[in-house]
Amino acid sequence: MASLTLYPAEERLEGGSRVTFDLYMITAVTLFVVMMLIGLTMRMTQATWLNVNPALFYRLLSMHGAGMVGTASIATTAVMWFFLRKYVGLHLWAFVANYVLFMLGALCVIVSIFFGGYGALWTFLYPLPVHGMGLWSNNASALFLVGYLLIGVGSLVFYLDAAAAIIKVYGNLGRGLGLQWLFGGEINPDHPKAVVASSMVIIANSLGILAGSVVLVMNLVNIYYPQITLNALFAKNLTYWFGHMYINATIYMGVMAVYELLPRYTGRPYPISRPFIWSWAASCLFVIVVYPHHLMIDFAQPRWLTIMGQVVSWSAGFPVFCVTAYGAMTNIHRSGIRWTMPSRLMALSMFGWAAGIVPAILDGTVRNNLVMHNTQWVPGHFHFYLLLGVLSMVLALIYHVLGNRANAVPNSGLDRTGFFVYLIGGLIFTLAFLSAGHQSVARRMATHLPEWTLTDKVGSVGATLVVLGMLYYAIRIIVGLLGRPVVIDTSHAHPADTAG
Ligand code: HEM
Fold this sequence. Notes:
Blueprint lengths: L14 H32 L7 H31 L7 H23 L23 H33 L2 H5 L15 H32 L7 H23 L1 H11 L7 H16 L13 H11 L4 H15 L8 H23 L2 H7 L4 H30 L6 H26 L14 H30 L18
Helix pairs in contact: 1-2, 1-3, 1-16, 2-3, 2-7, 2-14, 3-4, 4-6, 6-7, 6-9, 8-11, 8-14, 9-11, 11-12, 12-14, 12-15, 14-15, 14-16, 15-16
The structure holds protoporphyrin IX containing FE.
Protoporphyrin IX containing FE binds next to helix 1, helix 2, helix 14 and helix 16.
């Protein structure tokens, strides 16, 4: 069972681990601010408050999409590493290699977009990368794809190291997932939830990244040997298998922060259970096969794949989500929780995930998908659970670490104001997208019709608040992480420490 000690000794970051963790998180919050500024520029362009030409808009959209997805991934990888390393022997070099490969990949992506003019979006759908129509060259596309390959190899190195470490302690990934307790037997109450979640992420996301690598290499071959053409539908299936899995994995890595930290702030144990194990096992399978819900309006798609995507859509995210949300609520209820920054952010992350999943499931239903999928309903739902859900999970861990370093749980008036600005801004921003989707405003459009601009303007106001909130977080986090550690004085620890 996760410890109730607020700052357990085995979590302390020292030497290379501390430098690497700080580097991950400082890079992540800096990139989040920059990518949000790019997002704000696009939203204000749609609102006609800024005048960005369409060629540049699509470069910005490519940068924002790839940059945000990649940053969410490295930030949540750091969350997974932070907790998993307590239970199994992870190698620091693998964590460092992932960072270095990510940075090299990011550099390729940035150069291809801002120097090569690449604007075929983060989903690089074949054959768009080879149809630059004078806006970008095939070499720019190739550089973008190589950047993705580097980032993917980095993730695989980290997952392989984590897989080897879990197998060494638990025998295999199935036992890490807790499958031995699915149908009976006494569950080991000390089996870490972080190991269950990590095993699932390793299995599902490695498959997604491998699918992505295949289609990336196929695209590269096509760029330099155009006589070798790809089957566009097959390429799209592989691309969405990768894209869906990669971004979903960020939630499953980020949620480890809630499993590990929430009981420490409520002072109440949050034990592992059979429904918990069932839910992670089910989601592990479902999340791998759910991606066809992105291809529901592709008429050429084999019918059985669409039906599978439809049926699984209704169930894929539910098991883990229900068990986590119910578990978190019962853990908080009447616990006398202290509402400080980490606990507040964890509660927000549960809300963001819960509220964001509802419009996603609506869109994952064929009848609705026919009219909603190419509207701003889609950025509405994914911004909801990424901005308010996943980012809050990451911020909760960073604030927790800041508390450990300062030897006082962060809860200043400025922190609370930053939180409030981010929350209100996030709600206005995401609801404006959903409202636009409800009115059938098309997504991914650089230029909007005059009738569409009301929601664009409301969304821009919300986005400005989000940027201000994130800017505050970033400055606070960078200063806090780079500051000198305070010598730990256990008399300041949470009263719940005594329970651990
Ligand atoms: C202030 C915060 C943000 C702003 C202003 C913003 C703005 C935007 C805008 C205007 C779009 C294009 C919408 C359209 O299709 O018409 C977009 C797309 C997107 N955003 Fe954001 N965003 C923000 C935060 C985030 C975050 C936190 C993430 C992920 C962690 C994210 C990931 C994406 C992705 C993946 C796309 C889709 C790109 C595509 O369609 O190819 N954004 N964003």
